[in-house]
Amino acid sequence: MTPEQKPTLLLIDGHSLAFRAFYALNPENFKNSQGQHTNAIHGFISMLLTILEQHKPTHLCVAFDVSRESFRTKELPEYKGTRGETPPEFIGQTELLVEALTAMRITSVSREMFEADDLIASLANIGESKGYEVLIVSGDRDTFQLITEKTKILYPVKGVLNLQKMDDAAVLEKYGVHAVQYPELAALVGETSDNLKGIPGVGPKTAAKWIQEFGSLGAILDNAERIPGKVGESLREHKELAIRNRRLNHLLRDLEFDFTMDDLALGPVDEHAVKEVFAKLSFRTLTTKVLSMRGANGSQHRVISAKIEPEKTVEALTPQPESTGLSEVVASLPTSAPDIKTLTSAQLAALDPATVAISLEIAEGLVGLGAATVTERFVWDGKDPQGIIAMLQKGGFAIWDFKGVKRKLAALGISLGVPSDDPLLIAYLLDPTSKDLNPDSLIRTYCGIDVERQDPNQLLADSDPSIDAWISKVLVTALTPELEAQGQHGVYRDIELPTSEVLSAMEIRGIAVNKEVLSEQFNELTDEVEQIARAAYEIIGHEVNLASPKQLQTVLFEELGMQGTRSVKTGYSTNAEALQTLYEQTEHPFLAKLLEHRDSTKLRQMTETLVKAVEQDGRIHTSYSQIGTATGRLSSENPNLQNIPIKTQRGQRLRSAFIAGEGFETLLTADYSQIEMRIMAHLSEDAGLIEAFNAGEDLHNFVGARIYGVEPSAVDSAMRSKVKAMSYGLVYGLSEYGLARQLRITNAEAKQLMADYFARFGGVKTYLDQVVSKAKNLGYTTTVYGRRRPFSDLNSKIFQIRENARRAALNAPIQGTAADIMKLAMIAVHDEMTAQGLKSQLLLQVHDELVFAVAPGELEQLKNIALEKMKNVATLSVPLEVHVGIGSNWELAGH
């Protein structure tokens, strides 16, 4: 809470808001993968986020009714008896809502024999006594009696999206009485929703008139003889109804709680729990919104969860085997969280005796091992009395994230054999766009099995590795049939699984780095950044923060009087593209220095990251992600070696710090030449492109000659650059507008260039059109090898979303096939190096390039292996061309 922020307690009537959310949103539009309706939960959380954003409370509690029974129904059994049966679509949603609130670290309360309104009234009283402002969200008008100078009601007037703030003035205007008097008006009139009958013949206006005249219900009843006419007679005859109603609609304010106001403080959510719970609810967009608004990983205080009794058991909530793809043996296992925590070894082994699943948890030398029949924890000291390490080395089991686990074990000196399965890779292939590849989420989504963990953030103390092993095996059993149905089993078995083995070896090896060279370059870049900044200051006559958009806007558009190229909320854009365009228009020296400064600063940051990444062994061990892109391309992180610039001299210089290392004589690089254009030729079956590649022509000169109607030798550099941009642009779904911006030409010129291109290479146009059309119909694209990428947004009604999906769909089959080919090449080269007993090592994979450390005397042998395997790993209608380079460092080995 910031110093200027008032402590504000927000109290919500959970059932009241949940029911309004239920009726505001069509339940048929909100279901999770198990068929459970979730519209009430979605509407509730959406409204909650809106309230939090608008009113910015510091503390929050949600109160729920346990059941319809309360101390009021003991006095009047028919109390609230007019309310209909709970809609079947609502059943189960309250319990899930409480689970979602707990994940968001929001306390929810309920209490037997008391209503939510009583809990709210008591909490409001406590909040007021401690100096809090209080906001109450409730659709029950009984809460109007709680209104004071410090307490206000947010009353839903339509659905869940429109809340009217009710204070005393608002109640007086609408009902003709003050807020504190409203329950007395209700006592006279009655309350249909509570099944409380009022005085016959007495309506709200009459009741308000009496209260205004006499001041209170007690005074009205005391003066009942003075009230004339039939209404007076009715009042005198039925006054016990008013007395009873007032007794029943009085809200209790003295209930005690086993938590304090501090326990209701709002803080960050539990990111892990939110992802798990929201995945069960199939809330993707809402997950992102919650995490972006409420931060992550809150643990500053305990969170209370309401105990809600289910209305009744609903068979629809239990997933059926045929809907999940589980085998009979898996479907027969218990699916509730408590049973999962007490699974026996026999039940685990019953999954499939032929294939064991294991899980490992590692922390500072302590290893937790789970398998189908074993749970062990041990400190690895180089001994193996129980044969556990031998079992690990043997392999042949299913394990989640094999590559990551193998690297962690390697740090302890333990080797891990090749697995039979990795459910992480299977789940990724089924949905490569998912950002929630979490085993607990997946087993809930695909199998309807819920896993409760005492503390998901604690590594070993309360966890059970055998349960994780069980999850891995169940996921393999459940997901494999779907993988086979999609035709991706070959991608998994022949590409992804063996690639993880190759990558794990590369990560463990790392690459040797001359840290002194890196440090020297960092110092040079630091001096260079400072020098460029000083030169920029001299041009404008004063210092300015060159990284501040606001200050740059002042300099460029006010002091220098330039006209911006793209408007943003704060004025004109100062991003890299906008500044480059502005410089081309003005050629102002300050802009030249500013662009230089940005380039040098970015390179300095990159160099600093690399320096810090050098480990004690003098090597950088990057991590490769097989699940980081939707197309299948590998990504590199910690550090990212794929973002080192290759087209600039300074970027190439960075590579000079990467060396062969002790015991190796040189580095060898091997990369594919124009692999994506070759795949384009193969997929499009365009005769012109196939002719160019098969004839060994320079592709861009060949294409340029066709487009411009000249001999290949007459294609100048300007023509070639346009053709090159055009060719690669088509691979990435570049539009006429995008091509015009990239080449700095008019839209008309770009349109003509594309027309000329397609006139000469019609097969490309036909292919690109078919890709998008097919993806729209099927909902996905495929590579040559069967890898899928889903594209649901191709039919979006929003143009920008649809256009982004179109560009991605054009690129996915080409880039995905290139990724498949590179992975197959890595596997083939690795296997052949092993078969021939080479001591040389495969170190890096960056874009379309492999980097090797060459052992003494193995240069020619390794070169031949790389060329032969990479060229022949795939059979296309055009040849794959591979270039090799040799040098003592990565820069010199480039080509």
The gist of it:
This protein has 895 residues and is of the alpha+beta class. 49% of the residues lie in helices and 11% in strands. 41% of the residues are buried.
Task: Describe the protein's architecture and organization.
The structure is a single chain. This protein has 895 residues and is an alpha+beta fold. The protein folds into five domains: 1-166 and 253-318, 5'-nuclease (Rossmann fold, 3-Layer(aba) Sandwich), CATH 3.40.50.1010; 174-251, Orthogonal Bundle (DNA polymerase, domain 1); 329-510, Nucleotidyltransferase, domain 5; 511-619, Taq DNA Polymerase, Chain T, domain 4 (Up-down Bundle), CATH 1.20.1060.10; 676-816, Orthogonal Bundle (DNA polymerase, domain 1), CATH 1.10.150.20. The protein contains 36 helices and 24 strands. The strands form eight sheets. Strands 3-2-1-4-5-6 form a six-stranded mixed β-sheet. The chain has a four-stranded antiparallel β-sheet with strand order 22-23-19-24. A three-stranded antiparallel β-sheet has the order 9-10-11. Helix 18 runs parallel beside helix 22, helix 20 (439-447) packs across helix 21 and helix 28 packs across helix 35 (799-835). It is elongated, with a radius of gyration of 35 Å. The relative contact order is 0.06.
